[in-house]
Amino acid sequence: MDWQTEIKAEFEKAEQARRRGNEGQARVCARRAAGIAAREYLTRQGIRSPSASAYDLLNLLKDDPRLSLGLRRIADHLTLRVTEEFELPVNVDLVIEARRFCEDLLTQ
User: Fold this and answer.
1) Does pTM surpass 0.85?
2) Is 77 a residue whose pLDDT tops 90?
């Protein structure tokens, strides 16, 4: 499966999880989609992916000065830990942010 198909599949899973009321799973799928995009971005930059983990790749990119502040902020949001109430500490929709991240990152 190519990276575009993988990203599309993760966003479909995210939407399905959201419809079932499983926001945590939707966030996980959104993070995985963004991780796939991050891996493709690094490959295009000639950088061998240092990890298979979406979390690790997003942590790497959130400090990448080649990226816009907006993309770095989204990468930061995608790596946030939820609170004890399983809520994000910021008011964002990670599925929407991950879609933007994937689209913007791969048009650079």
Assistant:
1) yes
2) yes
